Amino acid sequence: MKVLIVGMGKLGFQLADAFSIKDNDVTVMDQKNTALQKTTDQLDVMAYQHNGVELSSLNKASIGEMDLTIAVTDDDETNILIAFLAKRMGCTRSIARVRNPEYSRQSDFIKKEMEIDFIVNPEHSTAMEIKNYLMRDMVIHMEDFAQGRISLADVHVNSMCDIAGIKLKDLNIQEKVLVAAIAREGEVIIPYGETMIEATDVLYLIGESDDVASFSGRCGVPMEKKEINSVVILGGGRLGYYLAEYLTELGINIKIIEQNRERCKYLSENFGNALIINGDGTDLSLLKEENVFDADALVCLTGLDEENLLLALLAKQFGMQHVISKVSRPNYIPIIEKLGVDVAVNPVTITAGEILRYVLGGKVASISLLLGGAAEALELIIQPNTYVTRDQLQYLDLPKGVIIGAVLRDGTVLIPDGMTHIQPGDRVVVFMLSTEMSNVEKYFLPPRRGLLSELWNNR
């Protein structure tokens, strides 16, 4: 498959990394040589130092032969124009990143009139992720699949009782729960029975939602219900704006602390029911004066990862139960969550997951990129003639980096073992290392021809 990615920031690089595995023909374009140099040093791609809105630049990149163009520069108007031109010049599909709230309200109109296939908004998607976490009943962080019947939870071993130092096969699991993966020192391990659990590990538990909560509770993880009535948002940028919009619609009391005075004025004009405070979110005296630590949840969304981390840890020291931090660097996520912060969200990995799901053509019901993109959890609806339906799992020779964590069949959740035979119509949640993403179509989608098949078969 031939892919053109215009804009080599963090998102552009992660997409180039995802698409350049194996034999895809990936071309990247940026006006800055430094961004291109980093990409070409690490990835096998063709690079052009050009302006993506110039017709001559697109022609040099053979835009008419491209199957997919993804515009992710720092400018919304530029991305819209590039995606529009790409389609007009013969590219099969185009995707644009659009972040401005004004544009997001009319994205359907822009897509239709400009013939853009997909518009993605990182801040919008990240705000939805944060809102979903805040609205979940349980304290531990869960990802929901299969309309909430199946959950994937990450639980720190040091918060569980008496399981460090034992083998996975010796865990007393009475519920429909599987340890799908272990995060250890920034790496992801697909475990087996002899794997020894260490005190610093994070376990990824998958199974029926109530059973995941039950098992965690038996192991000493607090499972009390959480009630969120008040939220403090540190940082009133685009992400803070979208989050405030979601939460005020739910009737939650919102307080936003933003340092830029003009931005505060804009926020106050749009959120009459929210309290907007013009001040420095790192000022401890201000935080105490505004009773920030008395709120039900704190969301740290400043522009600096280090600030977000320090503020999140400070909030934990003051006893706040629910603290969420935004991070721009995916490699920070394991560190932040190991330090006790409830959730670290990264707009880049969330956005990349949305784009990958779109490219897969709707065959993936949901996808979550975990640990900064090192692992992925996918929910798939199994179709007839799929490889995984041919025999029992023990005879299918699935890659070691792939594990089927749970199956929803006729309303019943199953935790599969070697004798399980996957059936057409099953909803399966698959946990895999990102390096195994090329096997999605081979094992879990029916054979077919066309653009999407070419993408994954050539990775």
Key features of this structure:
Rossmann fold, 22 strands, six-stranded parallel sheet, 459 residues, alpha/beta, Alpha-Beta Plaits, disordered C terminus, globular
Characterise this structure.
The chain has 459 residues and is an alpha/beta fold. The chain folds into four domains: 2-120, Rossmann fold (3-Layer(aba) Sandwich), CATH 3.40.50.720; 126-134 and 226-348, Rossmann fold; 137-218, Alpha-Beta Plaits (2-Layer Sandwich), CATH 3.30.70.1450; 349-457, 2-Layer Sandwich (Alpha-Beta Plaits). It contains 16 helices and 22 strands. The protein has helices at 10-19, 33-42, 55-60, 76-88, 101-104, 107-114, 122-135, 209-218, 238-249, 261-270, 284-289, 305-317, 333-338, 347-359, 440-444, 451-457, and strands at 2-6, 25-29, 46-48, 68-71, 93-97, 118-120, 141-145, 150-156, 177-184, 187-189, 202-208, 230-234, 253-258, 275-278, 297-300, 322-326, 343-345, 364-370, 375-381, 402-409, 412-414, 427-433. The strands form four sheets. It has a six-stranded parallel beta sheet, sandwiched between helices. Helix 7 (122-135) packs across helix 9 (238-249) and helix 7 (122-135) packs across helix 14 (347-359). The longest helix has 14 residues, at 122-135. The protein is globular and about 65 Å long.
- Principal-axes geometry comes out as globular
Largest sheet: 6 strands, parallel
Assembly level? single chain
In whole angstroms, how far apart are the ends? 9 Å
Average pLDDT score: 85
- How would you write the strand order of the largest sheet? 3-2-1-4-5-6
Helix/strand structural class: alpha/beta
Which residues form runs of ≥5 with pLDDT under 50? 449-459
Counting DSSP E segments of at least 2 residues, the number of strands comes to 22
Radius of gyration: 23 Å
Query: Any idea what the CATH superfamily of the largest domain is called?
Result: NAD(P)-binding Rossmann-like Domain
Task: Kindly state the percentage of residues in helix.
Answer: 25-40%
Continuous helix count = 16
CATH topology of the largest domain: Rossmann fold
Domain module tally: 4
